[in-house]
């Protein structure tokens, strides 16, 4: 092989798919020709300078950015390096190829940390979510069918990896005054534009409260897709969240992995809710309308992942019968008003542990009148069951209170001997975030 031919074909030594016979001839010539070997080392030095320090993964932004930036950045890169290294024509050819390759690597967004200049995936997610929010604001109505791993007769907020999937349906009118309805079979909540109404068929109880009542807790975000998107838009700036995006067959897929939020010095609440768990949210959007088409949420626990929520269908701008936003109670049943104005001198200005001691002591003595103020309306509905199971119990131990997760109250461990002889160990949940700072029973019995 002649020197001219070697220098002309030398770039093939950097091509993994080049003809191997040609590559073998080039290598043999380099062993015998110091001049061509020097040119080869120059090329290696150029490529070494251009080699990226990080190995990125391709994502949604590649298609958006590569065409716009390729030509002008390739020229800038080759011009800059040419000033520092004297190059022959063959090396310039290699440089041109390398510059294009490196530019592509630079344009590809990094998946992982959300704190760097090159976090293009989070930026793309932020941009797309903004478009989706704008599109969602034009929606007039929505019907969403979904499954949640919970207990049908329990609170809407309850989720758990060991529960079965329960069907839920959400109806929503976005026009003012907005109205909505959530039905999980054994619990229904309706907002008629002014008040919320909770119907519990099991106890034949209806509870009425203001527009901000906590009947559905975190579920509230699902009745408003805009809130979901705004929350995820904020998470694009969270260093502990990781994003991926892809587009296929008219649909855009966005995956977000986040760490559990809350105080887990005591991990009692870990994985008891979506926010209090390491989780992965998988969104599907219509690429044209930018509207949300589907959502799956997984709780991630060590090496195990559990699907906790999955939408089955979301319909937009469809007619909804106004009757959906009222609940007709059975004959003889009336709505009970829920008030936040809880008053008690006994359960104010004491610790949660002391409150627990007083509550269990009263149950042991069947002195229910002395603790009538600590039961919110929810618990008063089930009072006959509580009296039957706990009345006359024997207190074995009341432990030290603790906080966990995002719960606004405190947990107090207890061990009691029930009237039927059963030993029960659990944590009573107490909170005093009401108007008068009175400790009330929020769960754990």
Helix and strand arrangement:
Layout: H1 3-9, H2 20-32, H3 34-50, H4 61-82, H5 89-107, H6 120-136, E1 141-149, E2 165-173, E3 179-183, E4 188-191, E5 195-200, E6 205-210, H7 225-235, E7 242-248, E8 251-258, E9 278-286, E10 292-301, E11 304-316, E12 335-337, H8 352-364, H9 377-381, H10 383-390, E13 394-398, E14 410-417, E15 423-431, E16 440-443
Parallel strand pairs: 6-12
Antiparallel strand pairs: 1-2, 1-11, 2-3, 3-4, 4-5, 5-6, 7-8, 8-9, 9-10, 10-11, 13-14, 14-15, 15-16
Overview of this protein structure:
The protein is α+β, with helices and mostly antiparallel strands and 445 residues long. The chain folds into three domains: 105 residues, no CATH class; 201 residues, Lipoprotein localisation LolA/LolB/LppX (outer membrane lipoprotein receptor (LolB), chain A, Clam); 92 residues, Nuclear Transport Factor 2, Chain: A (Roll), CATH 3.10.450. It is 30% helix and 26% strand. It has ten helices and 16 strands. The strands form two sheets. It has a twelve-stranded mixed sheet, covered by helices on one side. Strands 13-14-15-16 form a four-stranded antiparallel sheet, covered by helices on one side. β4 and β5 form a beta hairpin. It is elongated and about 105 Å long. About 8% of the residues have low confidence.
């Amino acid at each position: 092989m002649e020197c001219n031919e070697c220098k002309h074909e030398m770039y093939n030594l950097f091509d993994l798919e080049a003809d191997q016979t040609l590559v073998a001839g080039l290598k043999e010539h380099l062993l015998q020709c110091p001049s061509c070997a020097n040119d080869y080392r120059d090329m290696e030095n150029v490529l070494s300078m251009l080699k990226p320090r990080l190995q990125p993964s391709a994502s949604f932004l590649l298609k958006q950015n590569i065409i716009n930036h390729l030509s002008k950045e390739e020229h800038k890169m080759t011009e800059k390096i040419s000033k520092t290294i004297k190059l022959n024509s063959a090396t310039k050819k290699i440089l041109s190829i390398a510059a294009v390759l490196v530019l592509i690597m630079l344009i590809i967004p990094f998946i992982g940390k959300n704190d760097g200049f090159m976090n293009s995936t989070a930026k793309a997610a932020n941009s797309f979510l903004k478009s989706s929010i704008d599109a969602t604001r034009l929606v007039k109505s929505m019907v969403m069918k979904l499954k949640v791993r919970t207990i049908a007769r329990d609170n809407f907020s309850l989720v758990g990896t060991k529960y079965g999937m329960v069907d839920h349906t959400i109806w929503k009118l976005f026009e003012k005054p907005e109205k909505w309805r959530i039905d999980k079979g054994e619990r229904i909540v309706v907002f008629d534009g002014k008040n919320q109404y909770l119907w519990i068929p099991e106890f034949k109880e209806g509870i009425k409260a203001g527009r901000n009542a906590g009947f559905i807790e975190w579920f509230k975000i699902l009745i408003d897709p805009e809130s979901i998107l705004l929350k995820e838009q904020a998470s694009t700036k969270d260093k502990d969240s990781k994003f991926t995006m892809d587009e296929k067959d008219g649909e855009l897929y966005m995956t977000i992995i986040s760490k559990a939020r809350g105080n887990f010095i005591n991990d009692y609440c870990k994985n008891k809710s979506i926010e209090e768990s390491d989780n992965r949210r998988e969104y599907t959007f219509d690429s044209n309308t930018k509207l949300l088409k589907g959502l799956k949420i997984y709780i991630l626990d060590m090496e195990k992942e559990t699907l906790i929520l999955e939408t089955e269908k979301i319909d937009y701008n469809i007619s909804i019968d106004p009757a959906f936003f009222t609940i007709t109670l059975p004959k003889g049943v009336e709505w009970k008003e829920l008030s936040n104005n809880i008053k008690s001198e006994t359960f104010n200005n004491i610790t949660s542990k002391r409150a627990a001691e007083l509550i269990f002591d009263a149950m042991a003595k069947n002195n229910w009148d002395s603790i009538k103020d600590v039961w919110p309306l929810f618990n008063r509905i089930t009072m006959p069951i509580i009296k039957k199971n706990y009345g006359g119990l024997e207190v074995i131990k009341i432990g030290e209170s603790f906080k966990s997760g995002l719960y606004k109250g405190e947990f107090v461990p207890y061990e009691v001997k029930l009237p039927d002889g059963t030993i029960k160990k659990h944590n009573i949940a107490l909170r005093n975030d009401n108007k008068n700072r009175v400790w009330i029973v929020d769960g754990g019995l």
